[in-house]
Design goal:
Blueprint: E1 7-9, E2 15-19, E3 25-29, H1 32-38, E4 43-49, E5 53-57, E6 61-66, E7 72-77, E8 84-89, E9 96-100, E10 114-116, H2 140-143, H3 146-157
Parallel strand pairs: 3-10
Antiparallel strand pairs: 1-2, 2-5, 3-4, 4-9, 6-7, 7-8, 8-9
Bound molecules: zinc ion (2 copies).
Amino acid sequence: MSKSKLEGGCACGSIRYQLSMPPMIVHACHCRDCQRITGSAFVINLWIERKFVEKSGDTPQSFRLKGGTGKPHDVFFCGKCGTYVWSRYHGSPGDDLFVRAGTLDKAEAVKPDVHIFTRSKVPWLELPKDARVYKSFYKFEDVWTRESRERMKENAASGK
Ligand SMILES: [Zn+2]
Ligand SMILES: [Zn+2]
């Protein structure tokens, strides 16, 4: 059997999605915005090109926040049940979405590649010893695989 695609949706099932490619990278973000939006200690986001997120069902609603870079951060959620399914950061180099891993049918299918903004990590949470950890953000060349950096380049070149 071939490796199945990642799929997921909101709590009420009105929004469903399937990812036609694996994410370029998986972030665990411990910033205050992510803590507030999720109501949790951190968020796990799958950073992936928007064109690889195949949506079905309802169109997500959105609201706009100011991202850490000063550029807008749009947060998308189900209009019926309020589940936050993904974000779009306008500061990102390409046309990407940050899909919330908790909405996957199999949330255990992904694991964070890197932990970011750990300067605001809750003190009771201990990260694995081998985890890649950054107090704020990182340099792409330090963390991303060559393959993912190539994907990002193509994606940025194809315009927003
Ligand atoms: Zn819903
Ligand atoms: Zn964050």
